[in-house]
Amino acid sequence: MSIDKSLKKKGSLARSRNVLKRHERIAQLKDEERWTEAYGPFNLPKTRVARSVVKKGGPKKTEEKADAAAPAKGAKGGKK
After folding, report:
1. What is d(CA 21, CA 37) in angstroms, rounded to the nearest whole number?
2. Nearest alpha-carbon partner for 44 in 24, 26, 62, 61
3. In this structure, what are the phi and psi dihedrals at residue 30, rounded to the nearest 5 degrees?
4. In whole angstroms, what is the distance from residue 62 CA to residue 57 CA?
5. What is the secondary structure of 43-58 as a DSSP string?
6. Is the model's pTM score more than 0.70?
């Protein structure tokens, strides 16, 4: 069964997959040097799924901006 076009994300899934396909597992085992041709494509050993972490980052404040925003220590805000 296929998914409707309006429900698909453009270009990728909405979240990361937790299961790798067989060719992805074999490639990962080769990278980790745990693969030999004697294994064959069936009954592969377990592999961990690499998860990408997206950091939420706003604009960083510099010392100049922080100093300009904070009032001077000796200044008073009210009138006399």
Report:
1. 18
2. 26
3. -65, -40
4. 14
5. SPPP-PPPPP------
6. no
